[in-house]
Amino acid sequence: MIANNIFRWIGSLFTDLLFIPFDWFRKGDFNWWSSNTVNWIFLAVLLVLFWYWMKESAKFLREGTEDRA
Question: What InterPro entries has UniProt attached to this entry (predicted)?
């Protein structure tokens, strides 16, 4: 019963909260650029995180601590 409640909570989180911007854009009359604003924001966040990850990876590679067991 607890596992069922967890999955119901996750489903409710996505459908009732996280998809609100997409529902708003779906119901409105917007052009392609404004409709995909949320996707562009997600892409920008992912690119920043990828840049940080690669910077840290290069730092560990220079220090020689990468792949140390």
Answer: DUF6341
